[in-house]
Input
Amino acid sequence: MTQILTDLTPDLMPELKPDLKPDLKTFADLNLDRAMLDAVAKLGYDEPTPVQEQAIPQILAGRDVVGCAQTGTGKTAAFVLPILQRLGRGTGVRALVVTPTRELCAQIDEVARICARCNGQHVVAVYGGVPYEPQVQKVRRGVDLVIATPGRLLDMIQRGDLTLSKVEIIVLDEADRMLDMGFWPDVQRIIRKLPEKRQNLLFSATMSRGVLEAVRDTLHDPARIQIGEVAMPVDEVEQAVYPVTAEQKTELLVHFLREQKPTRTLIFTRTKHKADRLATHLTRHGIKGTIMHSNRTQSQREHALEGFKNGRYSVLIATDIVARGIDVEGISHVVNYDIPAKPEDYVHRIGRTARAGASGEAMILLTAEDVHELKAIERLIGSEIERRDLPGFTYDHRHIPESKDVPKRPGKLLYRGGAQRAMQRGFHFSKKGAH
Ligand code: AMP
Output
């Protein structure tokens, strides 16, 4: 996945290498047929984007899909190509894309028409603000795929100019925006006009509780796809920062796991080596954990994930790269044992908990070296994360600067070297910790 690769910090590069080959997919690897490969060539795409790589096979397999992906990630082709391939030849409107705006409708229409031409299929865009009649005429001439905004679509249905009784696949695009713009009652009215048996695809830039609740009864065992640099944390995740010295970090984690006995905890470390070391420590303290990183074989990873899912292990220690694919229900806690180097990774990490409307907790174990990364995270999510002490834990001492006391542009030395060098430079640290 080139997009992810280019983002990597150098220290993570060696870690990714073993995974590199299987990840580099072409469109042909995604089970697209000749006609859709021709369409890809017409669109001028050389290789699939991550959302295309993930969504196309799932959609072709007939699964419902929930995709957290923003516009700009290539999501249009990610659903248009497999939909057209699945539809093949037939009569009547068999696929429907519902979008919040005319602009989006037109954009999707443009891509879909290029692709449909390769298959001898027809696409019509149905949206308001333009004359009704030309759109109806196109519909009457025969259409396989309709791309619509809710208002005009309902209008056409009510006037008897269009029926949805043959729809096999529905896409709700930018679901969060449709919800925000108050279109949801219209969307529900549209959904009620569809056959019971159908494939449901949902794309949304954010996955808030509202979106998840709105579609809970519509989707059947959906495959989840999470793409994008910035996806805001789901509302249900309770986030907290636990300031601690590097020396006491593991001790604090052990105390937390032993005292609070969380049901399913996903722990992130920055390197494979740290993951291994931490696992050894936890085992020594009687905590049943397993590891997932790129030095583990595929079967070891599957074993780890299966054990974590079925409760044999209450703790899974992972690095960011391999964790991208983890989709386990019921993760109660995500622990940032090491703060992520990139703020976006924090959002990806904590998105592993509080799935499907359940609640979850995300913790950051914060050492003095990490304050700049924390600040970047807080800037990204747009709020300050609460600082907490772990009840019953004896802290030796802490020297954690308040993030507001940290200058905006850290010098390289301070960034890399951590607290001690920062103090040598006359930096002011709070004795109390970051409260
Ligand atoms: P979308 O997220 O679907 O709005 O797509 C964003 C932009 O990416 C559009 O300009 C597409 O033409 C372009 N695009 C989509 N998929 C690919 C691809 N596989 N390779 C190159 N460009 C792409």
